[in-house]
Structure formats: structure tokens, C-alpha cells
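Hey team,

Filing this mostly as a record. A colleague (T.K.) asked me to run one chain through the structure pipeline before their review meeting, and I want the input and output archived in the tracker in case anyone asks later how it was produced. No errors, nothing strange. Just documentation.

Input sequence:
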Amino acid sequence: MTKLNSLNIPKKIAVVGSINCDQIAYLEQFPKPNQTIKAKNSALSVGGKGLNQAVSAAQAGALVSMIGSIGNDLFGEMALKHIKASGIDISSIKITPELGTGTATIFVTKNSENMIAVATGANACLSPEDVKAHKAIIENADALIVQLETPLETVREALEIAANAGVTTILNPAPAVKGIEELLKLSTILTPNETEVEALVSIYPKDQKTYADAVAKLRKMGAGNVIITLGGKGVYCACNGEEILIPAYPVKAIDPTGAGDVFNGVLAVALSTGFSYIESSRIAVAAATLSVTRAGAAESAPSWKEIESFLKENNQEAYKC
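Output structure:
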């Protein structure tokens, strides 16, 4: 049984995905249509699912390389500075003068619910040719993480390179779109949340039966291993012939933004380190739980030692599965 000890040999994680600047407003409640309300506070930070997942993996001790695209603007400068400061290899990030850096406008309520609107910007310029140009990064990785905030043909190219090289792949289907069956077949693990599952198979996962039904439908579409992230409920892990609900930990949530990205980044590190699917999911759930107790997305990602401490504080010998 694998034990959760500090990483001695860092694993290589490749991320192909989005880079945004997040504009966050903290509210009492969401505004109604045509309503103007005052925010309790606001913040400007870097984000994008790709960036958040890359930073989360790096915070957990991995050697991370990111393939992405930013605009030649202030937001791009902010993002590049943050990525570099996180210890991530930025040599495969291109600057696109035609479009501005992608943005995400985020509302967070006092009940820790959020709504996010994303403007793609320069992320739309990340092409299959860009991925091919950095093929070696993917081939030499222990795991690849992709999402759907960049063009589908770009995601497919990355997954095909990884599949041909025998690299573990994690597809986070966000935002969920139809017609991704080919991507599902190329992915080792699919990690949708509840709304993404509903968009893909018309089932909202709310209990054991709907979890299992949704997984069965996703597998008919071509998915193999499936981990459904369920927010404060934890995750439903249907991997390697086992299906189990792994609960989250009871904490006071401050900001759920990016919790799913933290889950995916840490999941990639744990799997690459040798943990089973269930063990890795438990570790990643702990990381995501820690992240919601902090404000921001990429900024909320915990270190591997913090994850270790959190598990021990919660008497989680069960993480050894």
C-alpha cells in the first residue's frame, strides 16, 4: 500500500490549456437580470483552468510545463509573472498580439456559491501546431492535464500525442460541449463536475443511482475511468472496476473558485507518484477542501506538506486505501 510521504522525486506534469485574468466580485447574493448591486469586495488575479491546474500541480511538488497562449497586454504580463514565480516552465507559452489575454468574470456569494463568465481571448489562438512544436514536453511527462477552454482540435492533438507515448491523461471537460466522444476515448480519466455531467449525458448526479447511471452513459460515449467532482459532497470515483463516493471534509468555505482545478492538479501528481485511483482521489479531495478555505483560485492551492498535515489532522489513515 502506498503511503503519503513528502515527494522525493518530483514528477513531470504537462498542462495544455487556458490562461486568464480573473476579475472577482464578492457579493451577498447574485444580481437579478438588469439589477445593479454593490459588491462587498473585489479582487484581480490570474486564472484560467489550465493555469490553475498547472499551479496546483506545481504547489504539490511536481515539475510542471505549460503549453498556452496569452495576449500582449497587462493581463498577459501578470499571468506570465505568476506562472514563472510558481516554478512552472514558461518556454512553451506563446504571446499572441492579435487578441488580448483571456478573462474570467467571477461572482462569489456569502454562501460560497459562484458564477463565472469566460472570454476566451488569446486562448483561442492555441493551435495543434503549437502543441506539435512542444511534443517532447508531453511525451516526457508522467501525466497530461487538458480542459476545454482552448480549441477542441488542440486538445485532441495533445491527447493523441500523450496516448501514443503511453502518458496518463486527465480530461477536465469544462466548459462541457457536445461532440467530444473522440476526446473521451483518448483520455485515461474524465473529471466532470455535476453541471458538466448533466450537459454531457442529461443526468444531474445527485445520489448513488444517478452517479452510477451518469458514469454508465459516459462510458457508452467512450469514457473509461470517471471521477465526478461534487463540490461539498466530495467526488464519485468510478475507476479501475470500483465505484465509491469519497466525501469532502467539513470546513468553513470562503471561496470555492478553482477548487476543481486544485483537485485535478493534485490528482495528476498523486497518480504519477504511484497512488491508486481511490487513494489519489482522496488526496486530491483533501487538497480541494483546503483550497476552499482560502480566497482566490490559483492562490488557494496547498503544498504537498499542507495536504499531508490536513489528512493527519483529520485522522485519515483511510487515505492509504
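Quick notes for T.K.: The chain has eleven helices and 13 strands. Confidence is low (pLDDT under 50) at residues 317-321.
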